[in-house]
Design goal:
The complex is a heterodimer of chains A (237) and B (210).
Chain A lengths: L6 H32 L13 H28 L2 H33 L7 H22 L3 H33 L14 H43 L1
Chain B lengths: L1 H16 L5 H18 L3 H22 L1 H4 L1 H6 L1 H8 L3 H30 L4 H28 L7 H20 L4 H27 L1
The chains are: A mainly alpha (237), B mainly alpha (210).
C-alpha cells in the first residue's frame, strides 16, 4: 500500500498553523481572564474550583481523541486509506497528554476538595486505564520495526481497546458501587451556573484549538516521516 | 475434530516432556501465596481476606508470564510455520491453543487452590464460589492473552509492552472475579472475549502468515 497523499495537502495545513496558534493564544487569554477574574468563586469549594476550567476540557478532549483514534483506525481498516492511519498515529500522543493533564489536575483539585490526592473513584480509575490504553498504542508503534505491520496491528488493538473502554467503564462503575456505597459525588451534584459555564466553554474552545494546532503539526510531521521511511526503503531495495 | 485433538495433544506433550513444564506455573502460584504471611503478618483473620485477592493477582501474573508460550515459542522455533501450512483452519489452531494453554497453565492452579486454602483456615464452602469464578475468569483471561500474543507476534521480545497491552484488558475479569455473586457477568464477559479473540487472533496469525 503506497501513500497517495500529496505534499501540497499538508502545506495547506502548514499555512493554517500560524492562524491556529493565534486563535489558541487569544482564546486562552480571554478564557483565563474569565476563569480567573470574571467568574465568581464557588461558594463551597472557593477558588480551588477554578481548576475545573483546565480539568474538565482536557478530560473531554482526552475522551474525544480516543474516539477519533478508534474511528479513524476502523475507517483505515475498511478503506486502507493511509491518511486515516496518519490521523490515528498523530492524535495518540496528544490524547495521552490530555489524559495525563486531566489526571494530574484532577488530583490537584482533589487535595483541597476531598482532602486526598487520589480516591479509587470510578471515573479516576477508568481515566487511568485509558491512559494505559493510549500508552499501549504508542509503544506498539515503536516496538515493531516493520511499519506496515505496525499499522495493521496497532489499528486492530485500537479497535479492541475501543470495545473495551465501555466495558472497563461499566465494570469499574460496578466495582465502585460495590466497595464504596456513598461515593464522593460533590462534582456531579450541583448543576453549573451560567457564570461558570461560559468561561468553561471558552476554555474548552481554547484547549480544542490547542489540540487542533498540535494535531496539524504532528500530522505534517508524521506524513514527512512516512515519506522519509519510504524513500529509505526504496534506497535499500 | 482430529486436528483439534492432534494440536492439543502436541501442546500437552511439549508441556509435559520439555523444560517448559506445567509444574512451573503451579509452583510459582504456591510461592506467591507463601509470600503473603511474610508481607502481611500471621494474623489469620486478615490473611483470609488477603488470600482471596492474592489468588487473582497471581493468576493474572502467571497469565502474563506464560504469554510468550502461547504463540511466540512456536513462532521462534519455526513450528508455527508448519502448523499454519498443515492445518487449513485458523480457528481450529486457535481453539486448540485455548484449551491446551488453559489446561497447562490454569488448571493446575485451580486444582491446587483448595489445598492451599487449607493453609489459611478456609473451608471448602468458602472457597467454592471463588473456584467457580476462577474457572470462568481464567478462561476469559486465556482468550484475551491469546489474541494479545497473536497480535504482538511481530514485536520483539518485549514482555513489558505485552503487559501494558494485556493488563487493562484483564481489569474487567478481575473486578467481576473477586465478587462471588457475579459469575453470570463473568460468563458473559468470557463469551464476549471469546468472540473477539477468535477474530483478533486469526487476524494476527494471518498477518504473520503473509
Amino acid at each position: 500500500m503506497y501513500l497517495k497523499l500529496k505534499k501540497s495537502y499538508f502545506d495547506v495545513l502548514d499555512r493554517f498553523t500560524p492562524f491556529l496558534i493565534i486563535m489558541t493564544i487569544v482564546s486562552f487569554i480571554i478564557g483565563s481572564y474569565f476563569a480567573l477574574y470574571g467568574s465568581p468563586p464557588d461558594y463551597i469549594q472557593g477558588d480551588s474550583m477554578r481548576i475545573m476550567y483546565v480539568h474538565v476540557p482536557s478530560a473531554w478532549w482526552a475522551l474525544m481523541s480516543y474516539s477519533v483514534l478508534a474511528v479513524s483506525c476502523t475507517i483505515w481498516f475498511i478503506t486502507r486509506n493511509p491518511f486515516f492511519n496518519l490521523i490515528a498515529k498523530s492524535i495518540a500522543p496528544i490524547g495521552a497528554v490530555f489524559t495525563l493533564i486531566a489526571l494530574v489536575t484532577g488530583s490537584i483539585w482533589g487535595k483541597p476538595t476531598w482532602g486526598v490526592w487520589w480516591v479509587w473513584d470510578a471515573r479516576l480509575t477508568s481515566m487511568l486505564l485509558l491512559f494505559f490504553l493510549y500508552l499501549a498504542y504508542i509503544f506498539l508503534w515503536q516496538a515493531i520495526s516493520n511499519k506496515d505491520l505496525a499499522s495493521k496491528i496497532s489499528a486492530a488493538l485500537a479497535m479492541i481497546g475501543f470495545i473495551n473502554v465501555p466495558i472497563i467503564k461499566f465494570s469499574v462503575d460496578w466495582w465502585n458501587t460495590l466497595h464504596q456505597p456513598a461515593s464522593i459525588s460533590k462534582l456531579s451534584s450541583p448543576s453549573i451556573d451560567e457564570s461558570m459555564l461560559i468561561p468553561l466553554f471558552i476554555m474548552a474552545f481554547a484547549s480544542l484549538c490547542f489540540l487542533i494546532t498540535m494535531f496539524s503539526v504532528r500530522l505534517r510531521i508524521e506524513f514527512i516521516e512516512s515519506r522519509i521511511s519510504r524513500l529509505r526503503q526504496k534506497i535499500y531495495d | 475434530m482430529k486436528p483439534l485433538y492432534d494440536l492439543i495433544n502436541r501442546d500437552l506433550k511439549i508441556a509435559f516432556f520439555t523444560s517448559s513444564n506445567f509444574l512451573f506455573t503451579a509452583s510459582f502460584f504456591i510461592l506467591i501465596v507463601v509470600l503473603i504471611p511474610f508481607i502481611f503478618g500471621s494474623d489469620s483473620e486478615q490473611l483470609r481476606i488477603i488470600f482471596k485477592g492474592i489468588i487473582w493477582i497471581s493468576i493474572s501474573l502467571s497469565i502474563l508470564l506464560t504469554l510468550e508460550r502461547i504463540f511466540y515459542s512456536d513462532y521462534e522455533d519455526g513450528s508455527l510455520d508448519l502448523i499454519l501450512q498443515r492445518y487449513e483452519s485458523l480457528e481450529i489452531i486457535i481453539c486448540a491453543k485455548y484449551i491446551a494453554h488453559w489446561v497447562i497453565n490454569c488448571l493446575p492452579l485451580i486444582v491446587i487452590l483448595p489445598f492451599l486454602s487449607l493453609l489459611f483456615q478456609l473451608t471448602f464452602s468458602d472457597i467454592f464460589p471463588i473456584l467457580i469464578n476462577l474457572v470462568i475468569g481464567s478462561m476469559g483471561m486465556v482468550f484475551v492473552a491469546t489474541f494479545v500474543s497473536a497480535l504482538t507476534l511481530g514485536a520483539k521480545r518485549t514482555i513489558f509492552l505485552k503487559g501494558i497491552i494485556l493488563i487493562p484488558l484483564l481489569v474487567p475479569f478481575i473486578i467481576f472475579g473477586v465478587d462471588p455473586h457475579s459469575w453470570p457477568i463473568l460468563i458473559a464477559l468470557s463469551m464476549m472475549s471469546f468472540v473477539i479473540s477468535i477474530y483478533a487472533s486469526a487476524y494476527g496469525l494471518r498477518l504473520y502468515g503473509e
